[in-house]
Write a structure and sequence with these properties.
Blueprint (H helix, E strand, L loop, with lengths): L1 H20 L4 H23 L13 H30 L5 H25 L5 H22 L3 H5 L5 H15 L2 H7 L6 H33 L12 H29 L16
Helix pairs in contact: 1-2, 1-9, 3-7, 3-8, 3-9, 3-10, 4-7, 5-7, 5-10, 8-9, 9-10
């Protein structure tokens, strides 16, 4: 556990401080190499332990690997991407906290409703197809938001963002709902605790690394747009919109790649068929 925490902590630190230190500086390279070394030691130790915290053999099952990837990327996009919605609403549209919260409400309402619907869809469709549908919505919502953010019309009418925000939230709900069921169904019951802990941990790791990695892209694009004229300068609304749109386009690309991976790894051949109830009469 200490090795894993150390590896993830150093990886986050390198991502967050890389721009300031320089991506090819000795400090950043040392932090990154140390993170990889600690991760390698963790995996080596787990593969030899009698009662491992995480058994690497779990990832030999394609459906489990697909479920792990799906939950990790779900948090990378849902948490990491949404952070930059707030940046855009505040710094480009100049909305206050209440207005920002109201504009984000469609995301979370759609995510809750779609999450409940996603579980029901498992009784009718293959789990890989359900999760892939969620990522398709995620990609579409991100692309629509990326197109809308630099628009002058949105600056005058922020409510135009409601529809793409609903699509984005729906994708997150559908993509995340069946993941735990898939992971549990392809492993033995004696591994239930390990599987649950692994999936939950990957969600937290994805949220942290996603926010940091997308933040690097946001900051570099903000600087590239010439937003800062000096130390502490306030970025222009146009630069913020451009940087946030770049993050959304990257999120759409990541969602599309995850969709393809999920269809391959959580195929009907690798994952159990959904349960179908048969009622008499």
């Amino acid at each position: 556990a200490l090795l894993l925490v150390g590896a993830l902590g150093l990886a986050n630190f390198a991502l967050l401080r890389g721009a300031g230190q320089g991506w090819t500086s000795a400090a950043t390279l040392l932090q990154s190499a140390s993170a990889l070394a600690l991760l390698a030691l963790f995996l080596r130790g787990e593969s030899r332990a009698r009662s491992p915290l995480l058994d690497p053999a779990l990832f030999r099952a394609p459906a489990f690997t697909g479920a792990a990837l799906a939950v990790f990327m779900s948090r990378v996009l849902t948490i990491g991407g949404t952070v930059y919605f707030v940046q855009y609403f505040h710094d480009a549209l100049h909305l206050g906290p209440v207005a920002t919260g109201l504009l984000l409400a469609p995301v979370f309402l759609a995510q809750m409703a779609a999450g409940m619907a996603g579980g029901k869809l498992l009784t009718r469709f293959a789990p890989g197809h359900v999760i892939a549908t969620g990522y398709a919505c995620k990609a579409a919502g991100a692309a629509l938001l990326g197109l809308a953010f630099p628009s002058a019309a949105v600056e005058a009418h922020p409510w135009l963002l409601v529809l793409p925000l609903l699509v984005w939230g729906t994708g997150g709900g559908i993509a995340g709902a069946p993941v735990m069921a898939v992971a549990m169904n392809v492993t033995g019951r004696d591994r239930a605790g390990m599987v649950s802990g692994t999936i939950t941990s990957l969600a937290s790791i994805g949220a942290g690394l996603g926010t940091a990695a997308l933040g690097v892209l946001y900051a570099s694009r903000l600087t590239g747009a010439g937003s800062a004229t000096g130390s502490g300068a306030t970025p222009s609304p146009e630069a913020v919109a451009t940087a946030a749109a770049t993050v959304l386009y990257a999120s759409a690309a990541l969602a599309t790649l995850t969709l393809a991976a999920v269809l391959t790894l959580i195929s009907p051949r690798h994952a159990p068929a959904p349960a179908r109830k048969v009622f008499p009469g």
